[in-house]
Design brief:
- The protein is an alpha/beta fold and about 425 residues long.
- Among the domains are: about 80 residues, Orthogonal Bundle (Helicase, Ruva Protein, domain 3); about 130 residues.
- It contains 17 helices and 15 strands.
- Strands 2-8-9-1-10 form a 5-stranded parallel beta sheet, with helices on both faces.
- β3 and β4 form a beta hairpin.
- α9 crosses α10.
Length: about 425
């Protein structure tokens, strides 16, 4: 007996409609058996976490969930804490449950010793209270991958380190970690990095030495055949059958997003009052069930994406002032171009040159919008969305290919099922509030 939420939908837990894809799962398994670091990337809700957690259960490995405020020192402190190593600064311990912002890189590590007769304790032994393990005190520098690797080896840790939401880190921290990642590869410490982006060699852009030291695994694209397999597998678990008409229409409505597809299947089942495995096979063929589900999801996605677009449009409004002329307000014009272009304009990405031309055409100071202004605008999108608490990000700029791309797979459903003119009209034009 299985519950509906265990079979269909987007969930942090493994779901029973998961299907293996040769080009993704096989490559991931092969990467696990190599000596290379692993990068898993793609749009949000496209199966990154599902893939990694299937082969590397999170509760059996070291998971580090990153935020926009995370530093490299925070990452290493969390890794050591998860391995049972305590960090002390200025005589007071830093435990994993405490805030770790602002501590020094040069600290002391307390390595657990199991029993009081351990030898080789150069830094001395600190006894815990009661029956707790004793600790060896070792001075380390948290900025040096070699020190981190030596400590992990000392406690016998062979766990994979999983970094989720790598895209939240700013470029400087990503670049810093990219150089450390190469060192960790040589030291035998293995990482899986998950990030929301769609460009190849993202990490290698920060450190070219990573090219032959990482395996990149994109979770996209999903094919119609993949979708059919997911639906059939889940249907078998729930003892139901979807009509061909329902499956074709649901696949088309998902715009290649497995997350949207999963949510639509879950909604259809819920509308049909199927909440668990049925006693006997039930056919799901009523197209109105899909129609109702799509209307509900359209409202759900519209609420999030409209707020996000409003937040982006209001960002960085003070740049480009010239005498008594108003600022350039480029984020607003970018949002306007995206909405006016619609699904067809954004589906395959938008070229920087096209965005520049479109903005110059409609801008109140079109002749003043320079190429450098566009570079600053697009390069700052990740930080802007982070500052505005847009999580996961909606759009991302591929600087290598000079392409603006959607990285929230639900955005396609939103932009295809919304009145874009109405949404654009509802977004405050900054020129109207001067």
């Amino acid at each position: 007996m299985a519950k509906l939420e265990e079979v269909f939908g987007v969930s942090a837990k493994p779901i029973r409609s998961y299907v293996e894809r040769d080009e993704v799962d096989t490559r991931f398994r092969e990467a696990l058996n190599s000596d290379k670091q692993i990068i898993v990337y793609g749009s949000s809700k496209q199966g990154k976490t599902a893939l990694v957690s299937k082969y590397l259960p999170y509760d059996k490995n070291l998971l580090v969930s990153l935020t926009p405020k995370t530093t490299v020192l925070d990452i290493y402190h969390t890794i050591l804490a998860g391995s049972g190593i305590r960090i002390t600064t200025g005589g007071s311990e830093k435990r994993s449950s405490e805030a770790n912002v602002g501590f020094s890189a040069k600290v002391k590590a307390l390595i657990p010793l199991f029993g009081s007769g351990e030898a080789g304790t150069e830094g001395g032994i600190k006894a815990g209270s009661g029956s707790e393990s004793q600790y060896e005190e070792v001075p380390i520098n948290l900025e040096l991958p070699q020190h981190i690797a030596e400590l992990l080896k000392k406690v016998g840790s062979t766990k994979w380190i999983i970094l989720e939401n790598f895209h939240y880190l700013n470029d400087d921290i990503q670049k810093q970690f990219a150089f450390d990642l190469r060192a960790f590869q040589e030291l035998g410490v293995r990482f899986v990095v998950l990030g929301v982006w769609r460009e190849k060699n993202r990490m290698a852009q920060f450190n070219g030495d990573l090219l032959d030291r990482v395996v990149e695994i994109p979770v996209e694209p999903w094919t119609e055949v993949d979708f059919q397999r997911v639906a059939r597998k889940g249907a078998e678990v729930l003892r139901i059958s979807f009509s061909d008409e329902i499956l074709v229409a649901t696949t088309q409505a998902s715009f290649s997003s497995i997350g949207v597809f999963q949510e639509l299947l879950k909604g259809i089942c819920s509308e049909a009052e199927i909440f668990e495995t049925q006693d006997q096979t039930v056919e799901v063929a009523d197209m109105e069930k899909l129609g109702k589900t799509m209307r509900v999801k359209a409202l759900d996605y519209a609420a999030r994406h409209q707020r996000a677009l409003e937040a982006i449009a209001a960002g960085h409004t003070t740049g480009g002032a010239k005498g008594d002329l108003p600022p350039l307000y480029l984020p607003y014009y970018l949002v306007r171009v995206v909405l006016e272009s619609g699904y067809d304009g954004i589906a395959s990405g938008m070229r920087r040159s096209d965005i520049h031309d479109r903005i110059r055409t409609i801008h109140h100071r079109g002749d003043d919008v320079r190429a450098s202004d566009m570079s600053n605008l697009l390069a700052g999108l990740a930080n802007l969305q982070s500052v505005k608490s847009i999580s996961p990000p909606i759009i991302d700029y591929d600087s290598q290919n000079r392409l603006l791309q959607v990285v929230d797979s639900t955005f396609y459903f939103f932009i295809k099922n919304s009145d874009l003119k109405e949404i654009l009209d509802s977004i405050q034009n900054p020129l109207d509030v001067r």
